[in-house]
């Protein structure tokens, strides 16, 4: 009888790991503590619940590293990407999904898989025996976090994630706001009008910044330090870094024309992205926040078009833990001191839904292959998957290790191509062409080993 693979955590990484291993013929037990044990951010007991944004970011696999990671996961028949494609929403060049049907389908497909057993149970220790993948993500339970810290001999590293509010579409004043994707990006009219835009004059922007800075904020507990991942900064933290920071970030006015006032260029623009298939909910793009609930309502209603906004969910902030993977994990995502245990997802020090699912995909395949007696090499360094896993398991500087999104800075340079902005499109296409070839070869080799 084949040894079972135990996976702890039913988020993006754990769900993908379970699917990959089961599809390879390995019996999987997926341990998910929800809904028996809840968390601050989750609303349901569904697997692969999206707790922050509903976006998987860029779907461009020719000139974008995230899009290339999408391509690699699709090529590997990834559960997360194939399900996301079935529930995608208009989002310009991004892949956004209807979050509840997406999670419901992932849950149904895993629970109906003949090789998968889902157990609602909290795991609080690192087992000495058996094959395990821990994919508990940013909301690892305190008990398990302490067990990981004891096993690794290292203090937990932590930063804070913030989530953005969601607005009821019917409460947005479309006499002020308008629908348009930045630079009219998208192949269909629906894609080109995927975002709702709220314009601000200079005076409105300055008053908004003043209110952000003065608003009541969530206080941290004693001993906690407010280190944030730069890709998920609360808007008030960005505002503290300079009054123009938001206008050059999530509130940049470029690539947009207000049809209500076509001759007047907005000083700043707040964008909202569709959050469900019905188009009844929109999330405020880039507006992660740690403001208290009462402050959020009053401050966000200062945004033109949102004066009467009603909120389906307000923003919040939660602790996120991750390993110092360069010192603790090998290139197979195994804990060096306990090689029967692998880690996957955000706890390894990757950031974002896509990256988390990608590490789950890789961990699931590597663990299953090991159980089946056909161990695989790790992902090729020239693939997006390989570039990311190389960074977190050895390429990054351990002393300054912080969570990382996939990006072309992690890729090995292509010889003969110029650097700088002028040559970047050619360079990016060279990266993705090479990555596709490397990933195809790895998948083909894995298939031959399985034959």
Structure description:
- The two termini are 19 Å apart.
- The longest helix is centred in the last third of the chain and has 27 residues, at 424-450.
- A hairpin with a 2-residue loop joins strand 16 (334-335) and strand 17 (338-343).
- This protein has helices at residues 12-23, 65-75, 79-86, 99-111, 142-152, 189-192, 202-214, 235-240, 293-300, 325-328, 353-371, 384-395, 424-450; strands at residues 5-8, 28-31, 55-58, 88-89, 94-97, 116-119, 131-134, 157-163, 166-168, 178-179, 195-200, 268-274, 281-284, 311-313, 316-322, 334-335, 338-343.
- Helix 1 (12-23) runs parallel beside helix 11 (353-371) and helix 2 runs parallel beside helix 13.
- It has two domains: 5-154 and 323-450, FAD/NAD(P)-binding domain (3-Layer(bba) Sandwich), CATH 3.50.50.60; 163-319, Elongation Factor Tu (Ef-tu), domain 3.
- It has 451 residues and is α+β, with helices and mostly antiparallel strands.
- Its EC number is 2.1.1.74.
Short description:
Helices cover 33% and strands 16% of the residues. With 451 residues, the protein is of the alpha+beta class.
Q: Rounded to an integer, what's the Rg over CA atoms?
A: 22 Å
Please write the CATH class name of the largest domain. Alpha Beta
Q: How many strands in all? A: 17
Report the uncertain regions: 222-226
CATH architecture of the largest domain: 3-Layer(bba) Sandwich
Shape: globular
Main beta-sheet annotation:
6 strands, mixed
Helix- and strand-based class? alpha+beta
The CATH homologous superfamily of the largest domain is called FAD/NAD(P)-binding domain
Percentage of residues in helical conformation: 25-40%
Distance between termini? 19 Å
Number of helical stretches of at least 4 residues: 13
CATH-derived topology of the largest domain: FAD/NAD(P)-binding domain
In spatial order, strands of the major sheet run: 6-2-1-7-17-16
The ordered H/E elements are EHEEHHEEHEEHEEEHEHHEEHEEHEEHHH
The number of domains is: 2
